[in-house]
Here is the input.
Amino acid sequence: MILIAVIFPWLSFFLRGKILRGIVCVILQCTLIGWLPAAIWAVASHLDGKNKRRLQRHYQQMLTA
Here is the structure.
């Protein structure tokens, strides 16, 4: 998924259901200068979502224990 976020940042957002962010990312990626920030944004967003899911699982385990 990180490879997709680097090569096709907009696709990374679309695959995760964030359509509006994907559209903004496509617009940003249309310029050569905007491609690098779009790729960084997509990777950071992917990692942030992954960390949020991990923390939520951790909190649920703490509550059930």
